[in-house]
Write the structure tokens for this entry.
Amino acid sequence: MTELVFLKLGGSLITDKSQPYTPRLDKLADLAAQIQSALQSNPGLSLVVGHGSGSFGHTAAKQYGTRQGVTTRQQWLGFDEVWYQAATLNRFVVEALHQAGVPALALAPVSAITSSNGKIAAWELMPIRAALEAGLVPVVYGDVIFDTMLGGTILSTEDLFEHLARALRPQRILLAGLEQAVWADFPQRQQRIAKIISKSFEIIKAGVGASHATDVTGGMETKVGQMLALVDEIPGMSAQIFSGEAAGNLQRTLSGEHLGTIITFE
């Protein structure tokens, strides 16, 4: 039986977010090798990979305020710069997957999605469905988007996964970053949260916190909130936030181990 899994490689994991436009090439190669090993050991695993923009897109996006809207000539030039940097990082990601033997196929969101006031209004999903049917691994990423109300904006990988999950109904969404889990006391990181359900999140969210580096699309609280909305809506789906930094963690999680924080309906 095929299991459909969405996997995000966080921008903080695959780039040095404190150094503009700096990929972590050794880490990308390691993550790609773990993905290939997981696919080989589990022929029933079907995968959609997404990745953040890290020190590429977020650096330019913060400079130009692209997430909030695009109207002026200078902002449109910034829109183009964010696109270029996001696409540049995507090339590094796809190259690492290709070198590891993963049949990855990049599908740029800017060419397929239209949004309205920062929410996806239309997305032709036939290419993603066809890629999955063919045994390929579609790769999407946080990207600039033309918006009918804002002119232009940015959608995060979680924004994309939110829409895709409602259409494709994955069994799991895995968010791999630097953080070992969701913390109840960020940034102190003394109280790890093993499991989050809707009823418990209101109690703990004040301590969950944001990103430790530039992130124009929201920090940890935003990510958890988006995943909770999905697991509440899609029966049987779970989400997992874990560290992809430790050796072998990604392959273990793809194989079904419960590392980090699990987000479920109950």
Remarks:
- The radius of gyration is 17 Å.
- The longest strand covers residues 3-9.
